[in-house]
């Protein structure tokens, strides 16, 4: 294990939160706001091994920020890097919607009780046991995960998306 300047062990950042971390990775890709740029991006990324499972776009006059979630995070990152796209990554919480009459309200109520703010939400192209799912960017990922699990809701992981054989 590498050691720092002070002689203390330094953890490899990849070991801090590996694939067992129960969050999804969201990519935010910066694009020029020109006709055809989104098409170029999606044609480059989508393939037999990489599927876009969620997308949202925030645009302005000059640029667009495209938020994406993939079934194969590492492969998508590799494709973005090799094509020299400007992008950032963030953790989002994926949660399977229950069978209640108001599944989104159930999720929002649980997070409200914990006083968590939801910044944005994307529906996932996900279907298991007849249920769909959402991905949410929240103030505090750790607290959101605990809160949703305590409310009896199922958290969606990257492994769930990679193993998904039923897409909407």
UniProtKB/TrEMBL annotation:
Q: What is this protein called?
A: Acetolactate synthase
InterPro entries, per this entry? ACT-like_dom_sf (IPR045865), ACT_dom (IPR002912), ACT_dom_pair (IPR045739)
Membrane-spanning residues:
none
PROSITE patterns, per database record: ACT (PS51671)
PANTHER family tied to this protein = ACETOLACTATE SYNTHASE, SMALL SUBUNIT
Which residues fall in a coiled-coil region? none
Q: Which residues form the ACT domain?
A: 92-168
Return the Gene3D superfamilies for the record.
VC0802-like
Read off the SUPFAM superfamilies from this record: ACT-like
């Amino acid at each position: 294990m590498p050691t720092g300047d002070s002689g203390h062990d330094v953890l490899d950042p990849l070991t801090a939160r590996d694939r067992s971390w129960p969050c999804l990775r969201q990519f935010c890709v910066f694009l020029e706001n020109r006709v055809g740029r989104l098409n170029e991006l999606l044609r480059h990324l989508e393939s037999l091994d990489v599927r876009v499972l969620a997308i949202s776009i925030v645009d302005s006059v000059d640029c667009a920020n495209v938020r994406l979630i993939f079934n194969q995070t590492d492969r998508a990152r590799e494709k973005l890097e090799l094509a020299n796209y400007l992008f950032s990554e963030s953790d989002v919480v994926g949660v399977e919607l229950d069978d209640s009459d108001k599944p989104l309200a159930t999720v929002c109520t649980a997070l409200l009780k914990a006083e968590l703010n939801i910044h944005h939400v994307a529906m996932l192209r996900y279907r298991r046991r007849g249920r769909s799912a959402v991905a949410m960017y929240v103030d505090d990922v750790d607290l959101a995960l605990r809160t949703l699990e305590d409310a009896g809701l199922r958290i969606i992981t990257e492994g769930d998306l990679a193993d998904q054989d039923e897409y909407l």
